[in-house]
Fold this sequence. Notes:
Layout: E1 4-8, E2 15-19, E3 25-29, H1 32-38, E4 43-49, E5 53-56, E6 60-65, E7 71-76, E8 83-88, E9 94-98, E10 112-114
Parallel strand pairs: 3-10
Antiparallel strand pairs: 1-2, 2-5, 3-4, 4-9, 6-7, 7-8, 8-9
The structure holds zinc ion (2 copies).
Amino acid sequence: MAQEERGRCACGAITYTLDRDAVAMANHCHCRDCQRATGCGFATFCALPDAAVTVTGTPKGYTVQSDGGRDVTRFFCPDCGTALYSEVAVMPGFKFVKAGTLDDPSWVEVASSMWAASAQPWAPVDASKPSAPGNPG
Length: 137
Ligand SMILES: [Zn+2]
Ligand SMILES: [Zn+2]
């Protein structure tokens, strides 16, 4: 039984629905690439299978090498620039949806933080959760 949640970019040109029950994990990522892409200290995302996410509209994507040297394709709204989700070469078939784009992000349960080694002093790692200095595992 899917539990549907909705999200969108700031201007509303891109919307999506996802099945909350399919979220495999939610994490904070403090890597430099997420910092640059978000303009903030870290990104918070929910990882879930492609089949559990339905995107309406046409996001634009660009591919960069992550801090871990793996390809990351980041999708954003070409009209307003909102970062919506990423796909990573190391976990094919999954989308990493930016939690802040959900209409109601309050239910997201963050399990851990990654790339703690590049956390900034003004956006410290959540000390109440496990963290990894780089990619987990
Ligand atoms: Zn937009
Ligand atoms: Zn990152």
